[in-house]
Amino acid sequence: MLLVLCVDLDDDLGRKTDFDTPVIGRDNVEAAAVSLATADPEDSDVNVMFEGVHLADRIEDETVEVAVVTGTETGDVAANRAVGDEVDEVLASLSTREEVQAVIVTDGAQDESVIPVIRSRVPIDGVRRVVVRQAQDLESMYYTIKQVLDDPETRGTILVPLGILLLIYPLAIISDSLGLPGAAVFGVTSGLLGLYVLGRGLGVERLLDRAAEKARNSLYAGRVTLITYVVAAALLVVGGVRGVETLESVEAATGDAMGPLEVLAALVHGAVTWFTAAGVTTSLGQITDEYLADRFQWRYLNAPFYVLSIALVLHAISAYFLHRVPLELPRLTYLAVMLTVGTLLGLTSTLAFAIAESRRSRRAEQVG
Fold first, then answer.
1. 269: Cβ–Cβ under 8 A, 6 or more apart, which residues?
2. Are 32 and 85 in contact, with CB atoms under 8 Å apart?
């Protein structure tokens, strides 16, 4: 047996006519449709009920029953429950031993939200959506936009850029009235909009949220790295400034145009000391946290020595190109000595801590 269910989720039939729901039977549904059309010719549920009658008349190879079920005016969860109760009443009124299959007839996306409720009570063979040809998909578009704007994340992605775009022209007018260049306001606002869209596209906000959460956890857990990272950031800033100052002093001393290699060497020579201090600070902070968490391993101590080795090499190369070799040594001799010292420092630390790690492992095995 096929049951054609016409769904009126917001109960237009019950509110605008004298019919009690559910309405069961082809003639009763047709009469209800005529009554609703008389009360409100523009109501789309009229088309739903006539479509249900039309489907019932077209099917001739099996027993067909048509019914109208309604919800409540609010159209929310309570409406879905009301539809479910009326579906139970319709099924109970069917005097048949055949298996009942249902076809749902609705007027758009809002009424189709009740389909899971109906499916839990009777198998569904199909869904027929009825819309007026002059307004094809208009209601579905409305509810799609409504659902999109109900999502906080999607709402922020769409409405924030749109709001900034709409504010550009008023801000330009206000800036002109205040004697400020409107083009500058337009450029700044467009730049902010571009940064926002780019950040949303790249997921920068999620990275910032994770970084903030990690910093908060580090603060509450008493992690030393939180302090060392702040100190290292300050040292990096000072190192950058010092590198620029060194470049300016070298340019003033030479008086000639410097090539790209000399510019890079000057920046490195001025900043390498401060950058080295930042690297050593962060590595020592990380080593301290690993020790406090009982995860310390001897090879972790290689980090500050590696930083020092790299710093020696970079300092020697930059001094070689800038002719700023200390101790009155020949440039090439100084470069060779520092490269050798840097290499030996890295190799020595690696070997020493590897031996210490090996002895520690053997001692742990003997104790175990």
1. 243, 246, 315, 318, 319, 322, 324
2. no
pLDDT in tens, the chain (368 residues): 899 999 988 888 988 998 888 999 999 999 999 999 999 888 888 999 999 999 989 988 888 999 999 988 876 788 889 999 999 999 988 877 788 899 999 887 677 788 889 999 999 988 888 876 555 555 566 666 666 666 666 666 676 777 777 777 777 777 777 776 666 666 777 777 777 766 666 667 677 777 777 766 666 656 788 788 889 999 999 999 999 998 888 888 877 777 888 889 899 999 999 999 999 999 998 888 888 878 888 888 888 999 999 999 999 998 888 888 876 778 888 889 999 999 999 899 899 888 888 888 787 777 75
Annotate 253-321 with DSSP letters as a single string.
HH-SPPPHHHHHHHHHHHHHHHHHHHHHHHHHHHHHHHHHTT---GGGGHHHHHHHHHHHHHHHHHHHH
CA distance 67 to 156: 43
- pTM, rounded to two decimals: 0.46
Cα(52)–Cα(29) distance, rounded to whole angstroms? 8
